[in-house]
Design a protein that fits this description.
The chain is of the alpha+beta class and 141 residues long. 30% of the residues lie in helices and 48% in strands. β6 and β7 form a beta hairpin. 21% of the residues are buried.
Length: 141
């Protein structure tokens, strides 16, 4: 009887440790998502932070060329434009949401992977995933 109690007590401790160990992994990936990110060309800086719909990314700085391309595509004010929205966890270091391409004025399904503490891979696809574009974003703060 005493052995059964010890075994149950040990199993309970193992379960608690496993739960506590798993929780920081998800929190860590989300914490890594927050911050200021520069796109691969260095033409945009995006602030990624929690919002009402999950995580969002808003343009906080852009080159004149990027602003002109956005205007040509139908986005008059690139600064302040939400280019990531409804971003939610979808697995280990992976998030799913929507991305807005201001140059083409289109919103597409997106996958964001946290590659490391200073790198995100942002991928948007159209036509059911037949045509995709992926960018490496670098943390600047």
């Amino acid at each position: 009887m005493a052995k059964a109690f010890v075994v149950k007590a040990n199993l309970a401790k193992i379960a608690v440790v496993a739960l506590l160990a798993a929780a920081p992994v998800q929190a860590s990936a989300q914490a890594q998502l927050a911050g200021h990110w520069k796109n691969a060309k260095g033409s945009l800086v995006v602030k990624v932070a929690p919002c009402a719909t999950g995580w969002c990314g808003v343009v906080i700085d852009a080159t004149e060329k990027a602003k002109a391309g956005a205007r040509k595509g139908g986005t008059p004010n690139l600064i302040g434009t939400r280019i990531l929205s409804e971003v939610r966890p979808a697995g280990d270091d992976v998030f799913k949401g929507k991305a807005f391409d201001p140059k083409h004025n289109v919103r597409v399904p997106a996958t964001i992977r946290v590659v490391g503490p200073s790198t995100l891979m942002v991928k948007g696809c159209i036509i059911g995933g037949l045509i995709c574009k992926e960018q490496r974003w670098t943390r600047i703060s």
